[in-house]
Protein backbone atom coordinates (compact mmCIF):
# COMPACT_ATOMS: atom_id res chain seq x y z
CA UNK A 1 0.00 0.00 0.00
CA UNK A 2 1.04 3.51 -0.83
CA UNK A 3 2.49 5.39 2.10
CA UNK A 4 1.61 8.91 2.91
CA UNK A 5 3.41 10.55 5.78
CA UNK A 6 1.80 11.44 9.08
CA UNK A 7 0.38 14.88 9.52
CA UNK A 8 1.11 17.04 12.53
CA UNK A 9 -2.05 19.07 12.77
CA UNK A 10 -5.20 18.76 10.71
CA UNK A 11 -7.70 16.03 9.96
CA UNK A 12 -8.02 12.73 8.24
CA UNK A 13 -11.28 11.92 6.53
CA UNK A 14 -11.58 8.18 6.52
CA UNK A 15 -14.12 5.77 5.02
CA UNK A 16 -14.97 7.97 2.06
CA UNK A 17 -16.77 5.97 -0.60
CA UNK A 18 -14.19 4.82 -3.13
CA UNK A 19 -13.85 7.33 -5.92
CA UNK A 20 -15.66 10.16 -4.10
CA UNK A 21 -12.66 11.92 -2.58
CA UNK A 22 -12.41 14.48 -5.36
CA UNK A 23 -16.06 15.45 -4.96
CA UNK A 24 -15.39 16.06 -1.30
CA UNK A 25 -12.23 17.98 -2.13
CA UNK A 26 -14.40 20.23 -4.31
CA UNK A 27 -17.23 20.67 -1.84
CA UNK A 28 -14.92 21.49 1.04
CA UNK A 29 -13.26 23.98 -1.32
CA UNK A 30 -9.84 22.61 -0.42
CA UNK A 31 -8.46 24.12 -3.61
CA UNK A 32 -8.87 27.52 -1.93
CA UNK A 33 -6.78 26.55 1.10
CA UNK A 34 -3.04 26.98 1.15
CA UNK A 35 -2.26 23.69 2.84
CA UNK A 36 -0.99 20.21 2.18
CA UNK A 37 -3.64 17.75 1.01
CA UNK A 38 -3.15 14.06 0.34
CA UNK A 39 -5.81 12.25 -1.63
CA UNK A 40 -5.69 8.49 -1.36
CA UNK A 41 -7.95 6.62 -3.73
CA UNK A 42 -9.03 3.00 -3.52
CA UNK A 43 -7.26 2.21 -0.27
CA UNK A 44 -7.97 -1.25 1.11
CA UNK A 45 -10.45 -1.29 3.95
CA UNK A 46 -11.76 -3.97 6.28
CA UNK A 47 -15.05 -2.17 6.59
CA UNK A 48 -15.79 -1.37 2.96
CA UNK A 49 -13.37 -3.29 0.68
CA UNK A 50 -12.20 -0.08 -0.99
CA UNK A 51 -12.29 3.44 0.31
CA UNK A 52 -10.86 6.89 -0.24
CA UNK A 53 -8.99 8.89 2.37
CA UNK A 54 -8.28 12.60 2.51
CA UNK A 55 -5.51 13.96 4.71
CA UNK A 56 -5.51 17.70 5.17
CA UNK A 57 -2.91 19.61 7.11
CA UNK A 58 -4.67 22.71 8.38
CA UNK A 59 -6.52 24.27 11.27
CA UNK A 60 -9.52 22.07 12.14
CA UNK A 61 -11.80 25.12 12.19
CA UNK A 62 -11.32 25.45 8.44
CA UNK A 63 -13.43 22.33 7.87
CA UNK A 64 -17.16 22.64 7.23
CA UNK A 65 -18.47 19.53 8.97
CA UNK A 66 -22.06 20.27 7.92
CA UNK A 67 -21.22 20.06 4.27
CA UNK A 68 -19.30 16.88 4.86
CA UNK A 69 -22.18 15.32 6.78
CA UNK A 70 -24.59 16.27 4.04
CA UNK A 71 -22.44 14.60 1.40
CA UNK A 72 -21.82 11.42 3.36
CA UNK A 73 -22.37 11.11 7.08
CA UNK A 74 -20.61 7.73 7.16
CA UNK A 75 -17.25 9.44 6.75
CA UNK A 76 -15.06 9.26 9.84
CA UNK A 77 -13.40 12.51 10.81
CA UNK A 78 -10.16 12.11 12.79
CA UNK A 79 -8.78 15.27 14.30
CA UNK A 80 -5.00 15.27 14.53
CA UNK A 81 -2.87 17.31 16.92
CA UNK A 82 0.86 16.83 17.46
CA UNK A 83 0.73 13.85 15.14
CA UNK A 84 -1.87 11.99 17.23
CA UNK A 85 -5.58 11.39 16.79
CA UNK A 86 -7.16 13.52 19.51
CA UNK A 87 -10.78 13.23 18.49
CA UNK A 88 -13.10 11.26 16.24
CA UNK A 89 -16.04 13.38 15.18
CA UNK A 90 -19.49 11.95 14.61
CA UNK A 91 -21.29 13.44 11.68
CA UNK A 92 -24.98 14.21 11.78
CA UNK A 93 -27.08 15.49 8.91
CA UNK A 94 -27.21 19.29 9.02
CA UNK A 95 -30.65 20.87 9.50
CA UNK A 96 -29.96 23.29 6.66
CA UNK A 97 -27.41 23.64 3.90
CA UNK A 98 -26.66 26.75 1.95
CA UNK A 99 -25.23 26.93 -1.57
CA UNK A 100 -23.97 23.35 -1.58
CA UNK A 101 -26.49 22.02 -4.05
CA UNK A 102 -28.70 23.93 -6.43
CA UNK A 103 -32.44 23.68 -6.89
CA UNK A 104 -33.14 22.27 -10.34
CA UNK A 105 -36.87 22.94 -10.36
CA UNK A 106 -37.42 25.21 -13.39
CA UNK A 107 -40.53 26.62 -11.69
CA UNK A 108 -38.56 27.69 -8.59
CA UNK A 109 -37.95 31.40 -7.95
CA UNK A 110 -34.21 30.61 -7.68
CA UNK A 111 -34.27 29.72 -11.38
CA UNK A 112 -34.95 33.34 -12.38
CA UNK A 113 -33.39 35.31 -9.54
CA UNK A 114 -29.72 34.39 -9.76
CA UNK A 115 -28.54 36.20 -6.63
CA UNK A 116 -30.74 34.13 -4.29
CA UNK A 117 -28.98 31.60 -2.06
CA UNK A 118 -29.84 27.94 -2.65
CA UNK A 119 -31.02 26.75 0.73
CA UNK A 120 -32.19 23.22 1.46
CA UNK A 121 -33.66 22.13 4.79
CA UNK A 122 -33.75 18.63 6.26
CA UNK A 123 -37.38 17.58 5.75
CA UNK A 124 -37.08 13.94 6.85
CA UNK A 125 -34.00 12.87 8.80
CA UNK A 126 -34.91 9.19 8.72
CA UNK A 127 -35.29 9.03 4.96
CA UNK A 128 -32.53 11.64 4.47
CA UNK A 129 -34.71 13.93 2.42
CA UNK A 130 -33.84 17.57 1.90
CA UNK A 131 -36.17 20.10 0.36
CA UNK A 132 -35.64 23.49 -1.25
CA UNK A 133 -36.56 26.25 1.19
CA UNK A 134 -38.49 28.06 -1.54
CA UNK A 135 -40.25 25.45 -3.67
CA UNK A 136 -39.93 22.24 -1.57
CA UNK A 137 -38.23 20.37 -4.42
CA UNK A 138 -36.94 17.09 -3.03
CA UNK A 139 -33.25 16.21 -2.85
CA UNK A 140 -31.85 12.97 -1.47
CA UNK A 141 -28.09 13.13 -0.92
CA UNK A 142 -27.84 9.35 -0.54
CA UNK A 143 -29.31 8.82 -4.01
CA UNK A 144 -26.81 11.19 -5.53
CA UNK A 145 -23.64 10.16 -3.74
CA UNK A 146 -23.94 6.40 -3.46
CA UNK B 1 -44.31 39.36 12.79
CA UNK B 2 -45.95 36.46 11.00
CA UNK B 3 -46.45 35.62 7.36
CA UNK B 4 -48.66 33.04 5.67
CA UNK B 5 -46.77 30.88 3.20
CA UNK B 6 -48.37 27.43 3.44
CA UNK B 7 -51.78 26.20 4.62
CA UNK B 8 -49.95 24.28 7.34
CA UNK B 9 -48.27 27.38 8.83
CA UNK B 10 -51.05 27.59 11.40
CA UNK B 11 -51.69 24.86 13.97
CA UNK B 12 -55.24 23.48 14.13
CA UNK B 13 -55.76 25.52 17.33
CA UNK B 14 -54.66 28.68 15.56
CA UNK B 15 -56.96 27.83 12.67
CA UNK B 16 -59.85 27.41 15.10
CA UNK B 17 -59.23 30.92 16.40
CA UNK B 18 -58.97 32.27 12.85
CA UNK B 19 -62.23 30.58 11.83
CA UNK B 20 -64.01 31.74 15.00
CA UNK B 21 -62.98 35.27 14.10
CA UNK B 22 -64.20 34.80 10.52
CA UNK B 23 -67.56 33.56 11.82
CA UNK B 24 -67.80 36.54 14.13
CA UNK B 25 -67.18 38.83 11.15
CA UNK B 26 -69.90 36.95 9.27
CA UNK B 27 -72.38 37.53 12.12
CA UNK B 28 -71.41 41.12 12.76
CA UNK B 29 -69.73 42.73 9.72
CA UNK B 30 -70.51 46.26 10.96
CA UNK B 31 -68.37 45.67 14.03
CA UNK B 32 -65.32 45.25 11.79
CA UNK B 33 -66.04 47.98 9.23
CA UNK B 34 -63.37 50.28 10.68
CA UNK B 35 -60.97 47.72 12.12
CA UNK B 36 -58.33 48.56 9.50
CA UNK B 37 -58.87 52.31 9.22
CA UNK B 38 -55.65 53.89 8.01
CA UNK B 39 -54.09 50.56 7.00
CA UNK B 40 -52.98 49.70 3.48
CA UNK B 41 -52.94 46.31 1.76
CA UNK B 42 -50.58 45.94 -1.22
CA UNK B 43 -51.72 43.37 -3.76
CA UNK B 44 -48.58 42.40 -5.70
CA UNK B 45 -49.78 40.12 -8.46
CA UNK B 46 -47.01 39.06 -10.86
CA UNK B 47 -49.59 37.07 -12.80
CA UNK B 48 -53.26 37.87 -13.23
CA UNK B 49 -55.76 36.19 -10.92
CA UNK B 50 -58.70 38.49 -10.82
CA UNK B 51 -60.81 36.40 -8.47
CA UNK B 52 -58.15 36.07 -5.77
CA UNK B 53 -57.10 39.71 -6.07
CA UNK B 54 -60.66 40.99 -5.80
CA UNK B 55 -61.30 38.75 -2.82
CA UNK B 56 -58.32 40.32 -1.00
CA UNK B 57 -59.38 43.82 -2.06
CA UNK B 58 -62.93 43.21 -0.88
CA UNK B 59 -61.64 41.86 2.45
CA UNK B 60 -59.42 44.90 3.14
CA UNK B 61 -62.05 47.37 1.96
CA UNK B 62 -64.71 45.78 4.19
CA UNK B 63 -62.30 46.26 7.11
CA UNK B 64 -62.08 49.97 6.34
CA UNK B 65 -58.54 49.75 4.95
CA UNK B 66 -57.21 50.80 1.58
CA UNK B 67 -55.70 48.79 -1.24
CA UNK B 68 -52.96 49.47 -3.78
CA UNK B 69 -50.91 47.26 -6.04
CA UNK B 70 -50.44 45.79 -9.47
CA UNK B 71 -52.42 43.12 -11.30
CA UNK B 72 -49.79 41.55 -13.57
CA UNK B 73 -46.03 41.50 -14.08
CA UNK B 74 -46.15 43.79 -17.11
CA UNK B 75 -47.41 46.69 -15.00
CA UNK B 76 -44.93 46.05 -12.18
CA UNK B 77 -41.28 46.92 -11.69
CA UNK B 78 -40.50 43.26 -12.41
CA UNK B 79 -40.91 44.20 -16.08
CA UNK B 80 -37.82 46.39 -15.59
CA UNK B 81 -35.97 43.49 -13.96
CA UNK B 82 -36.40 44.38 -10.29
CA UNK B 83 -36.02 41.41 -7.94
CA UNK B 84 -38.78 40.29 -5.58
CA UNK B 85 -36.47 41.13 -2.64
CA UNK B 86 -36.06 44.73 -3.80
CA UNK B 87 -39.75 45.13 -4.59
CA UNK B 88 -40.88 43.99 -1.14
CA UNK B 89 -38.38 46.31 0.57
CA UNK B 90 -40.02 49.20 -1.27
CA UNK B 91 -43.57 47.91 -0.72
CA UNK B 92 -42.74 47.63 3.01
CA UNK B 93 -42.44 51.43 3.02
CA UNK B 94 -45.78 51.95 1.29
CA UNK B 95 -48.13 49.40 2.86
CA UNK B 96 -48.87 47.60 6.14
CA UNK B 97 -49.48 44.11 4.70
CA UNK B 98 -48.90 42.46 1.33
CA UNK B 99 -50.66 39.73 -0.64
CA UNK B 100 -48.34 38.34 -3.29
CA UNK B 101 -49.10 36.14 -6.27
CA UNK B 102 -46.23 34.94 -8.43
CA UNK B 103 -45.87 32.31 -11.18
CA UNK B 104 -42.59 31.06 -9.63
CA UNK B 105 -42.67 28.77 -6.63
CA UNK B 106 -41.27 30.26 -3.45
CA UNK B 107 -41.37 33.92 -4.57
CA UNK B 108 -43.56 34.98 -1.59
CA UNK B 109 -41.07 33.23 0.73
CA UNK B 110 -38.25 35.28 -0.78
CA UNK B 111 -40.38 38.37 -0.13
CA UNK B 112 -41.15 37.33 3.45
CA UNK B 113 -37.44 36.98 4.22
CA UNK B 114 -36.79 40.61 3.33
CA UNK B 115 -40.11 42.15 4.30
CA UNK B 116 -40.84 44.49 7.20
CA UNK B 117 -44.61 43.82 6.82
CA UNK B 118 -46.59 40.54 6.90
CA UNK B 119 -46.67 38.75 3.52
CA UNK B 120 -49.52 36.49 2.47
CA UNK B 121 -48.85 33.96 -0.27
CA UNK B 122 -51.73 34.48 -2.70
CA UNK B 123 -50.56 31.60 -4.89
CA UNK B 124 -47.03 30.68 -6.06
CA UNK B 125 -47.18 28.61 -9.22
CA UNK B 126 -48.15 25.00 -8.57
CA UNK B 127 -46.79 25.18 -5.03
CA UNK B 128 -49.16 26.70 -2.43
CA UNK B 129 -52.34 28.73 -2.38
CA UNK B 130 -53.03 28.84 1.35
CA UNK B 131 -55.96 31.28 1.34
CA UNK B 132 -57.88 28.92 -0.98
CA UNK B 133 -57.33 26.07 1.48
CA UNK B 134 -58.36 28.26 4.41
CA UNK B 135 -61.49 29.21 2.45
CA UNK B 136 -62.32 25.54 1.89
CA UNK B 137 -61.79 24.68 5.55
CA UNK B 138 -63.86 27.62 6.79
CA UNK B 139 -66.70 26.73 4.40
CA UNK B 140 -66.76 23.12 5.60
CA UNK B 141 -66.48 24.09 9.28
CA UNK B 142 -69.18 26.77 9.02
CA UNK B 143 -71.71 24.78 6.99
CA UNK B 144 -71.05 21.28 8.38
CA UNK B 145 -70.41 22.55 11.88
CA UNK B 146 -67.18 20.58 12.20
CA UNK B 147 -63.87 19.67 10.62
CA UNK B 148 -63.64 15.90 10.81
CA UNK B 149 -66.00 12.98 11.08
CA UNK B 150 -67.03 12.88 7.43
CA UNK B 151 -66.49 11.26 4.05
CA UNK B 152 -65.25 13.69 1.43
CA UNK B 153 -65.21 12.96 -2.28
CA UNK B 154 -62.69 14.81 -4.41
CA UNK B 155 -63.62 14.72 -8.07
CA UNK B 156 -61.93 15.63 -11.33
CA UNK B 157 -58.26 16.42 -11.91
CA UNK B 158 -56.62 14.97 -8.82
CA UNK B 159 -53.18 14.68 -10.40
CA UNK B 160 -52.32 18.29 -11.16
CA UNK B 161 -54.82 19.99 -8.89
CA UNK B 162 -52.85 21.98 -6.34
CA UNK B 163 -56.06 22.96 -4.55
CA UNK B 164 -56.95 19.31 -4.00
CA UNK B 165 -53.51 18.32 -2.67
CA UNK B 166 -53.45 21.26 -0.25
CA UNK B 167 -56.93 20.44 1.00
CA UNK B 168 -56.01 16.79 1.59
CA UNK B 169 -52.86 17.82 3.50
CA UNK B 170 -54.91 20.20 5.61
CA UNK B 171 -57.71 17.71 6.31
CA UNK B 172 -55.48 14.84 7.45
CA UNK B 173 -54.80 16.85 10.61
CA UNK B 174 -58.42 16.26 11.70
CA UNK B 175 -60.06 13.11 13.05
CA UNK B 176 -62.19 10.50 11.29
CA UNK B 177 -62.00 11.68 7.73
CA UNK B 178 -62.42 9.25 4.87
CA UNK B 179 -61.39 10.22 1.36
CA UNK B 180 -62.92 9.06 -1.90
CA UNK B 181 -60.94 10.04 -4.97
CA UNK B 182 -63.03 10.19 -8.13
CA UNK B 183 -61.02 10.67 -11.31
CA UNK B 184 -60.09 9.15 -14.65
CA UNK B 185 -57.07 6.84 -14.59
CA UNK B 186 -54.97 9.57 -16.27
CA UNK B 187 -55.66 12.08 -13.52
CA UNK B 188 -55.41 9.92 -10.40
CA UNK B 189 -54.18 11.41 -7.16
CA UNK B 190 -50.34 11.10 -7.00
CA UNK B 191 -48.69 8.21 -5.16
CA UNK B 192 -47.14 10.48 -2.55
CA UNK B 193 -50.65 11.41 -1.42
CA UNK B 194 -51.91 7.83 -1.13
CA UNK B 195 -48.60 6.77 0.47
CA UNK B 196 -49.07 9.49 3.08
CA UNK B 197 -52.65 8.35 3.78
CA UNK B 198 -51.52 4.72 4.15
CA UNK B 199 -48.74 5.75 6.49
CA UNK B 200 -51.17 7.69 8.68
CA UNK B 201 -53.78 4.91 8.51
CA UNK B 202 -56.40 7.19 6.95
CA UNK B 203 -59.05 5.35 4.91
CA UNK B 204 -59.46 6.18 1.23
CA UNK B 205 -60.62 4.64 -2.00
CA UNK B 206 -60.21 5.51 -5.65
CA UNK B 207 -63.08 5.21 -8.12
CA UNK B 208 -63.71 6.12 -11.74
CA UNK B 209 -67.40 6.96 -11.67
CA UNK B 210 -69.00 9.66 -9.59
CA UNK B 211 -72.52 8.17 -9.39
CA UNK B 212 -71.23 4.98 -7.74
CA UNK B 213 -70.17 6.86 -4.62
CA UNK B 214 -72.64 9.75 -4.44
CA UNK B 215 -74.75 8.19 -1.62
CA UNK B 216 -71.65 7.77 0.60
CA UNK B 217 -70.53 11.39 0.51
CA UNK B 218 -70.92 14.08 3.16
CA UNK B 219 -68.94 16.52 1.04
CA UNK B 220 -68.12 16.65 -2.64
CA UNK B 221 -65.24 18.82 -3.81
CA UNK B 222 -65.45 19.31 -7.56
CA UNK B 223 -62.60 20.42 -9.82
CA UNK B 224 -62.28 20.93 -13.53
CA UNK B 225 -61.08 18.22 -15.90
CA UNK B 226 -59.11 20.04 -18.56
CA UNK B 227 -58.89 18.74 -22.09
CA UNK B 228 -55.13 19.49 -22.28
CA UNK B 229 -54.51 16.90 -19.57
CA UNK B 230 -55.48 14.02 -21.82
CA UNK B 231 -53.26 12.20 -24.27
CA UNK B 232 -55.94 11.99 -26.90
CA UNK B 233 -59.29 13.49 -27.82
CA UNK B 234 -61.18 10.16 -27.65
CA UNK B 235 -60.30 9.55 -24.01
CA UNK B 236 -61.39 13.06 -23.15
CA UNK B 237 -64.71 12.74 -24.96
CA UNK B 238 -65.30 9.28 -23.45
CA UNK B 239 -64.55 10.37 -19.89
CA UNK B 240 -65.52 13.98 -19.51
CA UNK B 241 -69.20 13.35 -18.81
CA UNK B 242 -68.35 11.10 -15.85
CA UNK B 243 -67.11 14.16 -14.05
CA UNK B 244 -70.01 16.49 -14.65
CA UNK B 245 -72.29 17.05 -11.71
CA UNK B 246 -75.95 17.36 -12.73
CA UNK B 247 -79.37 17.15 -11.06
CA UNK B 248 -79.62 13.38 -11.73
CA UNK B 249 -76.43 12.68 -9.84
CA UNK B 250 -77.41 15.09 -7.08
CA UNK B 251 -80.57 13.03 -6.57
CA UNK B 252 -78.36 10.13 -5.43
CA UNK B 253 -76.70 12.20 -2.71
CA UNK B 254 -77.52 12.59 0.97
CA UNK B 255 -79.84 15.41 1.89
CA UNK B 256 -77.16 17.24 3.82
CA UNK B 257 -74.30 16.60 1.42
CA UNK B 258 -72.48 19.77 0.37
CA UNK B 259 -70.90 20.55 -3.00
CA UNK B 260 -67.80 22.75 -3.03
CA UNK B 261 -65.79 24.08 -5.96
CA UNK B 262 -62.84 26.51 -5.92
CA UNK B 263 -64.29 28.34 -8.96
CA UNK B 264 -64.21 29.40 -11.72
CA UNK B 265 -66.52 26.65 -12.87
CA UNK B 266 -66.67 25.85 -16.58
CA UNK B 267 -69.04 22.99 -17.28
CA UNK B 268 -68.21 20.42 -14.60
CA UNK B 269 -71.25 21.50 -12.58
CA UNK B 270 -74.44 22.03 -14.57
CA UNK B 271 -76.17 25.31 -13.84
CA UNK B 272 -79.29 23.30 -12.89
CA UNK B 273 -77.45 22.32 -9.69
CA UNK B 274 -76.91 25.96 -8.65
CA UNK B 275 -80.34 26.31 -7.01
CA UNK B 276 -79.93 23.11 -5.00
CA UNK B 277 -79.42 24.17 -1.35
CA UNK B 278 -76.56 21.66 -1.16
CA UNK B 279 -74.58 23.61 -3.78
CA UNK B 280 -72.47 25.94 -1.66
CA UNK B 281 -69.73 27.05 -4.08
CA UNK B 282 -70.94 30.63 -4.22
CA UNK B 283 -71.20 30.80 -0.45
CA UNK B 284 -67.64 29.45 -0.49
CA UNK B 285 -66.58 32.61 -2.36
CA UNK B 286 -68.23 34.63 0.43
CA UNK B 287 -66.31 32.65 3.05
CA UNK B 288 -63.17 33.43 1.05
CA UNK B 289 -63.67 37.10 1.89
CA UNK B 290 -64.40 36.41 5.58
CA UNK B 291 -61.34 34.22 5.99
CA UNK B 292 -59.12 36.85 4.32
CA UNK B 293 -60.59 39.51 6.62
CA UNK B 294 -59.81 37.33 9.64
CA UNK B 295 -56.32 36.64 8.27
CA UNK B 296 -55.53 40.33 7.71
CA UNK B 297 -56.66 41.17 11.25
CA UNK B 298 -54.66 38.28 12.70
CA UNK B 299 -51.43 39.11 10.85
CA UNK B 300 -51.76 42.82 11.65
CA UNK B 301 -52.46 41.82 15.28
CA UNK B 302 -55.57 44.00 15.37
CA UNK B 303 -58.08 43.15 18.11
CA UNK B 304 -61.68 44.23 17.77
CA UNK B 305 -63.51 44.45 21.08
ZN1 LIG C 1 -36.46 25.42 -5.36
| E-strand count of chain B | 9
Number of helices of chain B: 10
Cross-sheet strand order for the largest sheet of chain B: 7-6-5-8-9
The CATH homologous superfamily of the largest domain in chain A corresponds to Aspartate carbamoyltransferase regulatory subunit, N-terminal domain
Q: What is the name of the CATH class of the largest domain in chain B?
A: Alpha Beta
- The CATH class name of the largest domain in chain A reads Alpha Beta
Output the keywords.
heterodimer; A: SH3 type barrels; 5-stranded antiparallel β-sheet; 4-stranded antiparallel β-sheet; 37% strand; elongated; B: 305 residues; alpha/beta; Rossmann fold; 4-stranded parallel β-sheet; 15% strand; binds zinc ion
Plain-language structure description:
The complex is a heterodimer of chains A (146) and B (305). Chain A is mainly β and 146 residues long. Chain A has two domains: 10-89, Aspartate carbamoyltransferase regulatory subunit, N-terminal domain (Alpha-Beta Plaits, 2-Layer Sandwich); 96-145, SH3 type barrels (Roll). Helices cover 13% and strands 37% of the residues of chain A. Chain A contains three helices and nine strands. In chain A, the strands form two sheets. Chain A has a five-stranded antiparallel sheet with strand order 2-3-1-4-5, covered by helices on one side. Chain A has a four-stranded antiparallel sheet with strand order 6-7-8-9, covered by helices on one side. The longest helix of chain A is centred in the first third of the chain and has 7 residues, at 21-27. Chain B has two domains: 7-128 and 288-299, 3-Layer(aba) Sandwich (Rossmann fold); 131-284, Rossmann fold (3-Layer(aba) Sandwich). Chain B is globular and about 55 Å long. In chain B, helix 1 (12-27) crosses helix 5, helix 2 crosses helix 10 (281-299) and helix 5 packs across helix 10 (281-299). In chain B, the strands form two sheets. In chain B, strands 7-6-5-8-9 form a five-stranded parallel sheet, covered by helices on one side. By secondary structure, chain B is α/β, with parallel strands linked by helices. The structure holds zinc ion (ZN). Zinc ion binds next to loops of chain A. Zinc ion (ZN) is lined by residues 103, 105, 108, 110, 132, 134-135, 137 of chain A.
Amino acid sequence: MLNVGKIEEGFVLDHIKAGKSLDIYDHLQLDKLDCTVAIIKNARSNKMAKKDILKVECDIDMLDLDVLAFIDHNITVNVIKNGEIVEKKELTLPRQIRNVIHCHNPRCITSIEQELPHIFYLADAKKEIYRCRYCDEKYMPSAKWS
Amino acid sequence: MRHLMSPLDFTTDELDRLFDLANDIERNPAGYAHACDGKILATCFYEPSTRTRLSFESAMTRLGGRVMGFADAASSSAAKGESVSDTIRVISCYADICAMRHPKEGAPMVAAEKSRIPVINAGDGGHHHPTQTLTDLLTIRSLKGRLGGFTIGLCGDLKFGRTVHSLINALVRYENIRFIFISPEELRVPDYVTDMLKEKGIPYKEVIRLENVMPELDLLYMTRVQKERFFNEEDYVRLKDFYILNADRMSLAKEDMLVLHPLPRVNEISVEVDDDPRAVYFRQAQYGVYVRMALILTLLEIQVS
